[in-house]
Amino acid sequence: MPGKEISLAVIQRLPRYYRYLGELLENDVVRISSKELSERMNVTASQIRQDLNNFGGFGQQGYGYNVEYLYTEIGKILGLDKRYSLIIIGAGNLGQALANYTDFERRGFYLKGIFDVNPRLEGISIRGVEIQMMDNLEEFVKKNKVHIAALTIPKMKAPQTAKEITDMGIKAIWNFAPVDLNLPSDVIVENVHLAESLMRISYTLKDLEASRESDGN
Ligand code: NAI
């Protein structure tokens, strides 16, 4: 809904709704009640109603939610009805793994370039996109609109490279390097740290084991 402020907490939950609704659509489910959705997603029905009411409450009493409508609306809010160009900086293990992943295109993110400093990688093609040297990046950014750069380079190199690429005009960084980038506030930085997820698992496991031990006593 244009103009309506949606809280950040809700926005952060939207990708999960989007994924579930996408699966329902793939299975030709036309409508779903908040109760059914809550069972699938393991979220309370009232949380679902509260979250989805943000979009004009298009759940109807006795009917539930129209899956396709909700999927499309959430997609629009997330900006997924648009196409974004993505480049990858750092064509090592992680960069190549990302480049090989095809599902981003389905979400509207198109891989347009891969860059590295290692001349041994130059010209190697991943899903039809050739790895280029970093020296070409500035020229590339002038000729091609680049919305997002994934940063998969060593941590020591990341802050400087991030600064250089934002000076070139790239305004969104998907940062995988385990370091804070400290960029101007108009640059979007999304940090992805798998190790932090693992730490959250470790924390929960630790709690679980402690409670098992105390149960055993
Ligand atoms: P890698 O060593 O396999 O690849 C790094 C690549 O970056 C190499 O090809 C290297 O030539 C290139 N490179 C180095 N300096 C560069 C520069 N200034 N400009 C462009 N390319 C440059 O390393 P890997 O395993 O792919 O990891 C890459 C980064 O991702 C590291 O910072 C690592 O800590 C991080 N990482 C993060 C994870 C996460 O969950 N966020 C998971 C795994 C790795």
Automatic annotation (TrEMBL):
GO terms for biological process: negative regulation of DNA-templated transcription; response to redox state. Keywords: Cytoplasm, DNA-binding, NAD, Repressor, Transcription, Transcription regulation. The lineage of its organism: Bacteria, Bacillati, Bacillota, Clostridia, Lachnospirales. Modulates transcription in response to changes in cellular NADH/NAD(+) redox state. Residues 16-55 bind DNA. The keyword Transcription regulation applies. Belongs to the transcriptional regulatory Rex family. The keyword Repressor applies. NAD(+) binds at residues 90-95. This is Redox-sensing transcriptional repressor Rex.
